[in-house]
Amino acid sequence: QVQLVESGGGSVQAGGSLKLSCIVSGFTDTFMAWFRQAPGKEREGVARIYTNGGGKVYADAVKGRFTISLDNAMHTVYLQMNSLKPEDTAMYYCAAGWLGGTWSRPEAFGHWGQGTQVTVSS
Prior knowledge:
Helix content is about 0%, strand content about 50%. By secondary structure, the protein is an all-beta fold.
């Protein structure tokens, strides 16, 4: 059974940091991604990583501030978020099970976690 479980969200002030974790079980995949969805907005891709640790790609809005990584031994994908801004406030989701198409579109993935909330105050 495929399962993705996120953790690490919380409330921080602007300029702060958080590290999100996603524990993956039940399958292996080519690559995985983090998405986010703010109230009233579409879900958008934040970062992607191949399961060999390469192929990292970031959305323009988070380049230079966020870092995606993984620990295959622990079956965990991380998202280190630094220099957080109020506009980073969103529910963050881990995604796997690539179906094809543009990685940053939610329809490209078939498996999702339940999400973890990140709130950044000014």
